[in-house]
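Pasting as-is:
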Amino acid sequence: MKLLHATIAFTLASALVMCHKREQAPAPKPLSVETTKAGVTLRVSTADCDIRVGEPLRVVIQVDRGADTNVTLPKSSTNIGNFEVRARSPLPQDPAFPERVAEQLTLVTFESGEKVEVPPFEITVRDGAGKESSLTSPPLAIQVQTRLEGEFNPSAFRDIKDAVDVPLEIQWAWIIGLCVLIAVMIVGAYRWWFHHPAEPVIIEAPHERALRELDELAARNLPNKGLVLDFYVLLSDAVRHYVEGRFGIHAPEQTTKEFLAAARHHPHIIDDHQRLLASFLRAADMVKYAAQRPGPNECDRGLDAARGFVLESLPTDNGAAHTSPSEAALEAGS
C-alpha cells in the first residue's frame, strides 16, 4: 500500500512539473515579410522566429498573383545562406485564394546569433503578354539561441600533465625471434624473386609448325563434312606460312603469281620445288576462286602432297633443301 501511495505521489509531482514547464515555455514569435510588384505579392513567413541551434525552422513562401500571371518559385538547393535545407514541399491549395502558390521549407542552422538572416528569395514572374520580371523578398531576421549555458571559463579545465615513464619488461627472446623470422622471410622472398626458374619458351621450327597444322587439319575431317573450300583455304595457308618461315618469302599475303615470281629468284628453292609449288597452289586457287570441289580422296592426296613437300624441303646441314621431292605425289594433289 505504501508503494502504491508513493507511485501516485510521484506521478502527480511529474504532471505538475510538466504543467509548470509548459506555462513557462515562451510563446512562438511569428514573423512575415512581403513585397509587391505589378499585382504580384511575394510573402515569406515563419511561425516562430526565435529558435535554438539545431531546431527546424519552417519557412513558408506564398505568391499571390493574377489569373493570367505565371510564377516560378526559387530553385531547389541544399543550402540557403547559413541554413541547410532539410525538406521542401508544396502546400495544398487554399480555396479562399485559388491563384495563390505556396510551398514550405524546413531549414536548420548551427550558427547562433540575435539576427541570423534567411537570405532573400527571388521568383520569376511572367505576365499574360509573355514579359518576364523578377521579384525579391526582404530577408528574414531570425534569432538563434545557443544551447550552451553560461560563459566559457578556461581556468575550469586542467592542463595536460607531463609525460610519465612507464616501465616495460622487454622480452628480448621474442624480439630476437621476430627479427630472425623477418630476415628468413626477406631472404626467401629474394631467392624466389630473383632465382625463380623461368618457364622455357618453346619455339617451333617452320616445318614443325607446318606438320602440326597439317595433322590438325586432317583430324578435323572437313571434306567429309562438305567443307571443301575451308579445307583448301587452311591447307594453302599452312603451306604458305611454311614457305615464309623456311625460305623468307612473305608468301601469305601475296597472290600465287607474285609468290611464284619471288620463288624463281630464291637461291634455296630448286626448280623441282618451284614446279611442285606452282602446281599445288594453282590447284588450291581453282578450289578457292573457280568453285571446283574435289572429292574427299582428292583432298587427302592434296594433304599428303603438302606433307611430303614439307618433309622433302627440310634444310640440310649446309642450309640447302633436299633435292628429291615426291613430285608425283604433289602433281596428284593438283
